[in-house]
Queue: 3 jobs
Job 1
Amino acid sequence: MELTGKNIMGSTSSAKGETLFYASNPSTGQQLNTPYHEATLQEVDEAITLAEVAFTEYREKTGSEKAAFLETVADELAALEQEIVGIGSQETGLPVGRLTGELGRTTGQLKLFASLLRDGSWVDARIDTADSNRKPVPKPDTRQMQIALGPVGVFGASNFPLAFSAAGGDTASALAAGCTVVVKAHPAHPGTSELVGNAIINAAKKSNMPNGVFSMVHGASIAVGQAIVRHPLIKAIGFTGSFRGGKSLFDEAARRDEPIPVYAEMGSTNPVFVLPGALKENHEALATGLSGSVQLGVGQFCTNPGLTIVPEQEEGNLFENVLKESISNAESATMLTDSIQRAYNSGLEKLRSKEAVDSISYGKKGEQQAQGIPEVLSVSANDFLSDKDLEEEVFGPSTLLVRTQDKAEMVKIAKGLNGHLTATVQGTETDLVEHADLLKILERKVGRLLINGFPTGVEVCHSMVHGGPFPATSDSRMTSVGTAAITRFTRPICYQNYPDTLLPDELKTDNPLNILRLENGAYVLPDK
Amino acid sequence: MELTGKNIMGSTSSAKGETLFYASNPSTGQQLNTPYHEATLQEVDEAITLAEVAFTEYREKTGSEKAAFLETVADELAALEQEIVGIGSQETGLPVGRLTGELGRTTGQLKLFASLLRDGSWVDARIDTADSNRKPVPKPDTRQMQIALGPVGVFGASNFPLAFSAAGGDTASALAAGCTVVVKAHPAHPGTSELVGNAIINAAKKSNMPNGVFSMVHGASIAVGQAIVRHPLIKAIGFTGSFRGGKSLFDEAARRDEPIPVYAEMGSTNPVFVLPGALKENHEALATGLSGSVQLGVGQFCTNPGLTIVPEQEEGNLFENVLKESISNAESATMLTDSIQRAYNSGLEKLRSKEAVDSISYGKKGEQQAQGIPEVLSVSANDFLSDKDLEEEVFGPSTLLVRTQDKAEMVKIAKGLNGHLTATVQGTETDLVEHADLLKILERKVGRLLINGFPTGVEVCHSMVHGGPFPATSDSRMTSVGTAAITRFTRPICYQNYPDTLLPDELKTDNPLNILRLENGAYVLPDK
């Protein structure tokens, strides 16, 4: 399949700009062939204007129509598996198996949102009927549901070229909400994005969706992204990436004449607390499990366990030894981009340069370029507590081991934590009872709390929270993974005294869509 | 009942500051006796620190315990009715009947949130159970629910000294969410606030709530409010007031090291569209009804109809005449404060000074101070469309009549609107069918759409939306009235692989609270 390097403006393509950029293969360092045309500001404006026009039509599509569209996107992507995975692995250095799995997750996400739309109850329908006899004034009929915000800007993420990119969770949930989408393709995998973008366009045509329901622009500089965030017709932003990138979008959006919500998932160090009993019973399996979680995806997961808190007991030393051994036997692997690999190295260098921190184990460097070498560093709890830098994310396959003297130190560390996506506690039943206070503290710090597991691996389901207090995200009230992600792109509206015929089907008195509703304060759940 | 003029720091009071201010009776212009102590920055910090300490305990209270607390607040307020209404009418110039009604609404809100807590289903519980046989990796058990954000800062509003003030909707919903609250009392009714604040403290004691679950500080300068918004332990802000005030809090919060959500309801002009058929059938009742809605509460409602769009047909002139007649017979009334009255006058003056705008009718000035005189102004659609100033809220009993040549002009006006809290359409069945496009446009502009009613009067119920796109509010995704307001102060958390005993009751497998849950994608609604 020939790549064009052009911007996707609804059903047409456009390449007005003269600024070109190229992807490269991180494992060889070689530049790939296709030149990509950075979108001009005019092209960004055209794409967004088209998204606004399309929105007035797309928002009126029924849930089933939108569901069919999402399912068709999934089908189109599945049909292109070989091409997508082929170009994807060239552009990202990720193994074919990983990309195949990620494509499955991506199509699965689309289908999950489709099923949410077919069910229909997600709109949180609420009906309070009129009471003309109420004193002192009659009670009006009021009905509420969620409606779409408008055109949404989505920023593709580097670390999940499929599941968090052009047709990833942000796009899927925004389209499901009834929003049109303008994607800023991540410049590290523009070819993958083009294939995926074209699949969405094909699906839109097949499903009779309005032209402009989806567009995608390229850009290697920050100008394109800024233009999206600043555009008055854009009503929300989805982003997964670095703190610096996410925070600058947040600030930009807050400075607009009309501020808009920015859902920026900005990374996290995902502390793992190993409790004394679990350590005693199970130090070997815990250390091996942690080593695997640290290395998964070359540590390029938002939920990578970058911080491990382990008591200073004898088995803590054994745990440390097993972990060191495991990491020292580990092979390096190609990171997503050259610059990510350089950032990983400089993050480690910054840690190593601290007097209080020791590098205690590292893996083997492979032959290819942009190698991320697994590494374990160590620091005492006391030193950790006195240096906020040590909590910062180092994006890559490393973890900082913090050794604690006692429970009080562990609790103190937990209390001092910033917001993270996840926290994990490894503990026996007794441990967990004895550390109930620790769990309560961690509840205030994260979006997801795991017991006896590892944070890598984010299940796409109704109950997932991939989010958490700042600085993990810019909006702790939301999740970017799972079906609850849809409400990032909606707001409630109330219809007062509306004739039944003018109401949306979700709110008509006889409940034609057969959805769950809150009717005069009681949940009514029709048989399905 | 003796007023102390002191800040309420949980169960103690404090008056460390040397800056004093006084309330005054707007109808006489006379200063009232009690000196109020503006809180020092240290007192603000103490109140918030106390709220943080209390939060760790308060968030663990069961729904029933929190419900009992809210109900006790309502009882305490009802028991103080005479005192509250007495001081309230002195401080605000509002009639006793209105304040009595507003107190009923305030206690009603508290009880409604209590009933929401007793039902328990508001937490949006979601459960996806484990599947150890799933390939390629086992599926973990994940469970999600909403939890409280932390201490919340609430700014009392001038225009509803009870329902949007110390124990108003923001406080009630934040306490219901499980947050502790620090109120900044509105300096125009500090005595009313003190009585209400004391009632909350008494209820907290009687209900065994932790000291610091509620505090209230005074301040006539902006320093106190800024200190609340800037305080790192404050996790969200509720505000109802002017655009300038709300936007400055929003900006302040966005600039924090850790940005926090600000729910600012910043006012709105609440356009009313009168369609040709309704006008033909019913011009007299419509004009009289509008006149009443404009004057209600001396026009000091966020939902006051400040903009009325009426076709240039014969009955449009008749409508205008009836409205003029009605307003010219109307009496002025005392506004909430001297400065609100001055702002009303200067807002009108700004309108009148425009060449395109005519003042076509005004009411009679009464004897008392701070009189708001009802007024109708008029402008052609064409002139309205060319001057964005004309859409701005003039807080008080006035409306700007916009006369349109045809449907196209009406649609153009709708398309050009900023965000508002409400829009109203007066129309016959035929009108509504013929103006379906107008309704669709308005849907994107407001939080509540009314047919054949008037926007004043905000029902407190499950389906109400008192919110809307910017600049009506700073966050269109939320409502400040009705039970959905509770989610402003919560965020989702996911528990992964948690032992049942450690899960909150809302998520335990056997559903001990008997709440609605989404279990493996299916809504499960136990019999109650």
Job 2
Amino acid sequence: MLIPFEKLKSEFKRVLLSLNFEEGDAEQSATIFAENSRDGVYTHGLNRFPTFVQYVKDGLIIPNVRPTKEGGFGAIEQWDGHLGAGTLNATFCMDRAINLANENGIGCVAIKNTNHWMRGGTYGWQAAEAGMIGICFTNTIANMPPWGGIDARLGNNPLIIAVPRKDGHVVLDMAISQYSFGKLNLYKSKNEQLPLPGGYDKDGNLTTDPAAIIESLRPLPIGFWKGSGLSLVLDLLATVLSQGRSTADVTDGGSESGVSQVFICIKPNAGVRTEMIIETILDYTKSSRPEGEGKEILYPGENTLRTREKSLKEGVWVDEKIWAKVTQL
Amino acid sequence: MLIPFEKLKSEFKRVLLSLNFEEGDAEQSATIFAENSRDGVYTHGLNRFPTFVQYVKDGLIIPNVRPTKEGGFGAIEQWDGHLGAGTLNATFCMDRAINLANENGIGCVAIKNTNHWMRGGTYGWQAAEAGMIGICFTNTIANMPPWGGIDARLGNNPLIIAVPRKDGHVVLDMAISQYSFGKLNLYKSKNEQLPLPGGYDKDGNLTTDPAAIIESLRPLPIGFWKGSGLSLVLDLLATVLSQGRSTADVTDGGSESGVSQVFICIKPNAGVRTEMIIETILDYTKSSRPEGEGKEILYPGENTLRTREKSLKEGVWVDEKIWAKVTQL
């Protein structure tokens, strides 16, 4: 069913206030959850909200704490998130990175002891809205085997790269696993095969069967050995720069709390020449002949904007059962 | 056959001097070519050297030019490479980024009008040797279709991320295509199938047949749509930050010359705690049970070190035909 954006947001805010989040924090976090659903990232909007609430109730997410600065040198800073809401901590850190880049051309903020930031793209859009190139990534609990192994030892460690653009920012928002377990479960529940191989079955064969991957717990990293290496180095960067908890530590803790994140901003040359460069690159990419009828070549973030416009016009799509659950929280 | 490292290097240097490279530049570039073969990256060591020589003869690579600073603000700088050797320009830029990071915690150098840097990992090792986290990437000529398209409009835009480590740096060095055309041709020449799907055949089916991919010119980006987006944003960053030529411009020019590159360094906290963080992450990753007899879980760069040690002990492997060709240049 479809719900007006403002209604979705106010419902989230009501629940957050009941959990003793301060007015400003409740407003900000509710906005992010509602925007995630508005932009079509349902898994990290409404659908994830009940888990967020449970984490607050379990003391894994602590309301009303503020990040504190632990160190810094020049244009890099380290912060401690004190297990506050990941949405609020991440917004704060990207804002710091924007400020550092305004002062120094580039800035890097690392945070430890923070929590799941929901949709990483949120902070890419935030940087781009401020006219900045934004790069951010997070570690996660182990949910993917390293290349050559069968036990999960790597996180899917989402990586976001955003480039500001007049007619719609380019925002790449990708986890390092080919398909998330959320996606695998969705295909399984619909009894559908994945469009492309997404992992191994328990006999070690590459498969498009979501159930077989859920059983083997061997989802694929993007690019096989390449994504395995990329996930590992992102965890190294996040943990070394924040001096926080690695995927190993988070997994050892048993629940995905107290993760480490990095936010980098770079100030691009503003002006007509930069705008032309971006349009030339996008136009050139789109000039490739589509592989079939109705196929379209999109830049990262293009579909987000379309979904956003549709949601604001027609209402935000919600899963009725989850929506009912949230209204009763 | 096996050749002593010093012999390989001196042969490269002899040729470079004959092309009128100055003594210091010839020494530096010869060292990089020899080290690339020494480390097992034969495609960008000896095997690529004749192409490099031809590019110099064709005036696409210009000896003895020096990069000039075009702009800068705080910890970011823009340079013009004046079509000099990519190896020398890239070494220069990573050195600048190291200096900027030493002063500011982080530094970013973008360069336009440069040339193929051969093995991107070279500059990752350079940063790590200086105790820095190094991130660098380059655009290339279009050699990969965007997701949903059939005509090549994206480069394979190699991305390098290096983390300094006491007992061997972690250096991820990956192109955004699953297999390079060099790799595809190698498998084809041996009449072997790829171990994993590497592209589409001309009918649009995913295939492990290298000949079919060479025919269709549709190699896969890593992670399908994800790598397609990643390649695009890396080109945007390289071109916007350097104000140089995009993959579109380079492709339009007809030969892979005058590319754009970005070099970022971040200064990590040095000390025992950082060393422990890195070892914990690597040990944890390696604790995944291997998927079969003789399988091993390696961190990015681990195999490089092994090959390096072997090459220095036993000699550097060279393709006899290419070696004969180079000795006669």
Job 3
Amino acid sequence: MLEVCLLGTGGMMPMPRRYLTSMLVRYNGLSILTDCGEGTQIALRQAGYSPNPIGIMCFTHYHADHISGLPGMLLSMGNSDRTEPLLMIGPRGLERVVGALRVIAPELPFEIKYREIKEASEDIAFEGGFIRAFRVNHNVTCYGYSIEIKRSGRFDAEAAKAAGIPLKYWNRLQHGQIIEEDGVRYTPDMVMGAERRGLKVTYSTDTRPTDSIAENAKDADLFICEGMYSEADKFEKALEHKHMMFKEAAQLAAKAQPKEMWLTHYSPSLFKPEQYMDEVRAIFPAAKAGKDGMSVDLNFDED
Amino acid sequence: MLEVCLLGTGGMMPMPRRYLTSMLVRYNGLSILTDCGEGTQIALRQAGYSPNPIGIMCFTHYHADHISGLPGMLLSMGNSDRTEPLLMIGPRGLERVVGALRVIAPELPFEIKYREIKEASEDIAFEGGFIRAFRVNHNVTCYGYSIEIKRSGRFDAEAAKAAGIPLKYWNRLQHGQIIEEDGVRYTPDMVMGAERRGLKVTYSTDTRPTDSIAENAKDADLFICEGMYSEADKFEKALEHKHMMFKEAAQLAAKAQPKEMWLTHYSPSLFKPEQYMDEVRAIFPAAKAGKDGMSVDLNFDED
């Protein structure tokens, strides 16, 4: 099971009852946090989580509303006696920006590892899955992220029998091991069917629409996408500051066909996002206006 | 009128329903903010204020819970098209720390002026009053602040008449001007009584009790004081990390005799400060457990 929580839904500045946009994904004991603006640690606690198990942090870019909560989050992780290293992923400049912010969080009981993304798309593996960073189109270098969980194929007992593989090796083959005995070699592909559909959540914010976003969100279980402005007269502003309209997010989702899309990163001027969802759903029906603390448990298909 | 609002009452980390300790003082169109931890701009808006009119910011010290909200606050001030310069006051290192944090808030439409406090006590004047910074005793250099509004004496019409001062000069003398005419010199002290009691609010946090705190809070209208821990078994912790117990704050107040004391900067482990106030009030009766957003309007004595 992959648990996804949209901790906040605000853009630009945190507000009473709307924290800054940030996503927490939990899988198999690992928490992955994407973006950490001012107040994210409060939103995290409000949603019932703790900072301690965050093993990976992804940053889309270094505008304050996406990273200003980092020093406090690091200190709270440190205060909870965490000692495991923390992996940070983000565009070029990551170590420099984090280093500067750590002027007020200089001492931590855990190591920080940095992975600076330079290519248009890069994959970073973790146990059971991988994170794909893909470049988007903002006024500074900015990345979207997909978090994917792999699912192996079904074990084919008939194939194993037909190949004469001793029963005692079945379990190890099923877990991906290669076995050699008396000059005979047994490999997992002899007993395993094709890889099955896994789980995927895609997060993209602070960008104009791009083909790459639609490709990266393709068939995602959940696509969390920026919808900074809803009203047509804000389009100039969206163009100027390289943000996205509700409708544009809907059009991306219509191309990508995720199972569901949630909008987020609302302008402070946007009071009731729900009011504008009809025109979004006219383009892509499985759309929801994200709310602070909204969460979902994603499970493998039953097959 | 001096308006004082305790924006938050938390220490160490911001929590749902308890923002970090910060005080907003408003006088005559000027807002003075003391400390700005993560979430202070949210607390400020929650209490109904705006970041724009903040003309002076005081920092007690540079632990994250007292300054981590600065980049976001500066950006919010910039977004509201503020152009007036901002004066920052704090211990040595102010410009270096703020400079580092501004890696995520590099462009602002207003100038920042720095006043680094080096002496045990320093006064900084503003129109109508002054701020007194006084060193306290924490594990890094830390200052408390008093904000004082001056009040001139009463105009003494009898004295003016007796001295034969022409009526046309009375108003100017009353406003502090010196007048010379035909070799005769009229000075305000000829017509004004002794300076009357003004207004004073004193703020001290992150410190062990010191005589200087009691002296500086002497006769304040409001003394906002750290009460990090309430239970006796936390005393070792208070000593180690140089914080204050509820009782110790009460003893300081008993010496200083402010009109009222509010406790703040509660440990995250302290859920209901009100439960421990009886023993505080046994020592100093005019004590309140501070709450987020608690405010008071201080007025000159009626005399």
